[in-house]
Amino acid sequence: MKDFANSLKSNTKFLIFGCGFSGNFFAKTVRKFGYKALTSSRSEKQDQHSFVFNSTNGKVPNDEIFDGTTHVLSCIPPGENGKDPVLEILKSKLKSLSLEWIGYLSTTGVYGNTNGDWVSEIDKPNPFQKRSHIRLNCETEWIESGLPVQIFRLPGIYGPGRSTFDAIRNQKIRVISKKNQVFSRIHVADITNAIIHLLRNKDSLKFHQIINIADDKPCSQLEVIQYCYDLLGLKMPKPILFDEAKKELSPIAQSFWTENRRVSNKLLCETLGYQLIYKDYKIGLKNCFLDSHKK
Fold it and tell me: What is the pLDDT of residue 2?
């Protein structure tokens, strides 16, 4: 990634809408390369890198925030009305800027249930959940906006401070068993570094508007939990069958277990040449484990 610092113009400026787990990680990383990265917040913060954008009360950034912006990353989910908040309020403003690139973080939930089969970008989305239908509509809004957008479909995101270890330590872990159920996942660092790879090689790579970012090894949640307990030197509680556990799960938690798919990263890693930092959950969770012991 050393070349990244020399691959973008020195006046590159990122606006990042939605400074959650992924947005914050991205912002901190590009700042290390010397680029300006401003992040949105719903309310005022004592942070020189922060600006206010709140779609519920109509609070929008002032013109000064947009001055010189070349790149935008939107991590904000659809609003309660099903619309994309950034496009709904700022579309005309974004179109008035000389933007080189916009990234939109979406979800692999738009693929729906494949009963464990692999899905890739060439597969037609078949969303099962209402929230996934809405997300697909937002993807379409971005594609039809006329803006230079690239959409990244993400599975379950984890990383230091947000992993199975944290659920175990906070006693919020549910050890659930469901036959043949698998989940795909991605370490937060690979989201950022995959995007950086694409930006760094923008002129030499064929442009793909929709890209999955996932690791190499979809697997059962039980396998992941067992690995974490082993690293902690603890005994994993006896798993509960999903049919029993679902009685105590929230509707949204239940919904994650009704879909079963393996997300392919071949476009990103084979065609576009990105090398994963954390190829599977074992390498990624070991990073989380070691990070927690530094503190």
Answer: 58
